[in-house]
Task: structure prediction
Amino acid sequence: MRARRKAALAAILFAALVLAAFNAGWWWYYRSITEFLERQLSHRLTGAAAAAALHIPASDVDALLIENLDTYARQLEYLDSLARIDSLSEAAIIDLDFSYLISTREDISREGYLLARLNFDTLNQAIQGHPAASALYNVDGTFLKSAYAPLYNSQGDVAAILVVEAGAGYFGLLASLRNNLVVLAGGSLAAMILLLVIYIMYNRRMAAAEEKLFQAGSQAALGRMVAVVSHEIKNPLMILNAAGERLAQKYADPEASFIVDEIARLDNIVSGYLSFARGDTVLQLDSVDLPSICQKLVVDFKPQFDRQGADLTLDCAEAIPPLKADPVGLRQIIINLLLNALQAVDIEAKNRPEKVVRIRIEKSADKVILQVSDNGPGIKPALREKLFEPFFTTKIQGSGLGLYLSRRIVEQHGGELKITDRFAGMTTFEVTLPAGERL
Result:
């Protein structure tokens, strides 16, 4: 599964890189075309302005400055022909105050050349004697570019500026292309997000399917293993049970009765493991007093905890209602959690002044909560859910079935078994069971 995830992630990453390269290529192509066309237009307009300026004599420049009508008519005719030949939207002459002396447009502003402020730097180059083209600008949705060339008076000084302006419709098409590229980039991003969502959903479904297959395989292996083990254990248990019953009858000793009871419990546990492995468990429900079970287990296990230097305590809230549960299964869950806690506090025990295992029972709404906490080294977050998988264990010795079967028993009761950090510095296994006489 991990290999499939890596392959899928590599494929998505490759697709993302290809898509990014594709979009970057289109943007580069768009910028290159735009810059090339703008440079070509600048060269054309600058050349046209410079060539036209050579055909306007200094005497005509002097005459235009003093508003000579004959010169005005002659130069207007020249500018009109220039505009037609070079497909200009405007050809004009302005003075150094940026006021119109003459223009091919009839709607020129009385306030003077309106683009003077926008193209001031370019106009300043023309005033210094160098023809130059402005940057591309947009007027009411039309892309335009202007070029300026100096006009000299009789004294050889720059006295006026020739203005040529041309539209560039293809820049509108390029703007549409840019908008399409933006849409394409957005669509690509949306497609990548959609693919990522589909991948996540597909991966989750595949992981769930593989988990089910794994559980089914584990279940089958568990069933075979438990069938063999239970067959080998049941015969000795029957012999031990018969011997214990004879001892109990002969000596009437409580310890002999204890042996019989524990052998019966072992037999029930083996039978229960076999039933869970086969998936045909039937809970033997009865009214259970959880505090009484825990109190008896504390008494039974205290000698073992004392030998290992661990402190076992029971903290029980008042008025804990009875549970409708399988007493054998519930007892086995608590024993499993206690033994796990005892093993945990023995790990790296030198770093802790004391070993503490605490059982706590409390009621919350319509639920009863049992917590078994220890101050061992703790459990890494990445391993917490794995602990409940069959055959997974962090112990040198262990089958990896205890917590798996314990959770199944709890879930069979309609409850929940999980690991929490409710108590600072302690690892807590929390069993939540429905309270009352009904599941």
